[in-house]
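Annex B, item 7. Sequence and structure tokens for protein A, then protein B.
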Amino acid sequence: MHDQPYRRNPLLRASYTFFAPVYDVFIEGPMRNARRASFSALPTDSPGKVLISGVGTGLDLPLLPDMHRYTALDFNPAMLARARPRAGKLDVEFVLGDSMDLPFADAQFDCVVLHLILAVVPEPQRCLSEAARVLKPGGTILLFDKFLHPQQRAPLRRLFNVVTRRFATRMDVVFENVLGAAPDLQVVSDVPLIGGGWFRSIVLRKP
């Protein structure tokens, strides 16, 4: 029986059910090129198994090559319902589950995609640790999200975070602190994308 820690935050679950119909209006356009840039690191030498952990409404799906087998996981049924039509001809299995307690055995995937999920979940360290657990040795994790830098003050973001973390997203996540939960992962690249470097594209590899 999985712990499903997201269930301890019913407001977050309810808010994303409410946001599902309008989520794309605010996210799709501004983030499309950044998502595409992140996927430039997706392996293309041979077919593999790719987990999209926190697929949301499926905005990533039209940007993916059809050579891989995909598993698209999200904790919200309303989000998954909107993601399914975007699969097109991709080989995708949709799974209702928790990014902080993945319902998969160890070392199952060649690549794990974490787009705009580490700053949403209540426990980002646990989310990254779970991604590392289900990743095969030699596999990669593709991250795209907003992160503060160590010792960055960002007073306004931290102030808004008191409210937004409860129903939408966190604004105080420091990537370097999150990485401590999976010390074996190696940083391959870390590229600022939008928001003056607030949003970053990061590639990690599991030895």
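Protein B:
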Amino acid sequence: MATRFEFVLLGEDETLLQAAGEEALREITSLEKRLSYYSDTSELTRINRRAAYEPIPLAPDLFSLLREAERFVKKTGGAFDPAIGPLLRCWGFVEGSGSIPDDTALEEATAMSGFHHVHLDKNSNSVRFDHEGVEIDLGAIGKGYALDEAARIVKGHGITNALLHGGTSTVVGIGTSYDGEPWRIGIQDGDAVLGTIELENSSLSISARSGKFFTSGERSYTHILDPRTGHPTSEAAVSAIVSSTATRSDALSTAALVLGSAALELHDPETGVGVWRTADPSSVLVLDGLPAFDRNLSWS
């Protein structure tokens, strides 16, 4: 998944901890092979190649993940939408570092993008596309899903205290830390620490414009696109979501970055939201429901 996964597992049985960690990492490797947008042999690639021509039967777990993605598309009003493969290609983020498309190409890519082209049949556990060229990229939800599956395995081994992360941008806190207190996690963009929060049986995901971008003239263009407009998001620089699952926080952090000041609508009893205009703790656009949030007021 083009990132590094690391686990901290607490307990007294070192053999058990190692076995659990290795099994969880094997599951992530397996999911990478199945869900990769960039692999010619993955299940996702098979879907992208064939679903415009015929319904594609899916394994139950992949069908459930696409159903979950569909729910997030609806919850966010389309600010999160994994069916944006054509837009990613149009902006040059699939096989290059990015470039500005011409208006005609962007219009065509926008017409081929969007989860409204994806139809899930729960009776047959299948998916089909209603337009040629539609492509799903699970990059904004797959890492969180993989961490949830890893957490399921870890807890299945009886481990009650652990910290799992993928690329430091999505973190799952199981139980508590060494001292019995919640896991304390920093929200960071580059060298800037925006604040810290506490995680206990919950997850945190962070999205940032600075992750991957290109510069043209005096303007920078992020790889995080607004599916509703077809253009890179621009209002917010950093977003953070705390939620009950990593799948949920991963998807919603992308949506929060796209929504900017409108991300407050994502807040509910199981979701905390933070959005910053720049990598500066004082540039808060939205801050609501993050557990035990402590701003880094000493940032300079």
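Comment on protein B: Helices lie at 14-35, 43-50, 60-75, 85-90, 103-112, 142-156, 246-259.
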